[in-house]
Design goal:
Blueprint (H helix, E strand, L loop, with lengths): L3 H6 L3 E6 L5 E5 L5 E4 L5 E3 L2 H26 L2
Antiparallel strand pairs: 1-2, 2-3, 3-4
The protein binds zinc ion (ZN).
Length: about 80
């Protein structure tokens, strides 16, 4: 389905999920098209494959954060 606003002025992406410090998922507020940044910081369509990568990145990111927190409280 084509959205008139998007075809005229382009998509208006808002961040829907922060995956890591560098990777986020976005959704267009007009047509609901979903995009994601990848590890290189490039915007790519949020495919099921990219979603898989993102959830993996997210769990790695959380583990790293947890580990860092533990290290800092060990003193
Ligand atoms: Zn759009």
């Amino acid at each position: 389905m084509k959205n008139l606003i998007c075809s005229l002025v382009g998509h208006d992406f808002k961040e829907t999920k922060k995956v890591t410090n560098h990777v986020s998922e976005f959704q267009c507020i007009h047509c609901k098209k979903q995009m994601s940044t990848n590890e290189n910081g490039d915007l790519t369509p949020l495919t099921s494959k990219q979603k898989e990568i993102n959830s993996l990145l997210h769990s790695i990111h959380r583990k790293k954060k947890k580990k860092a927190a533990q290290v800092s409280t060990d003193y």
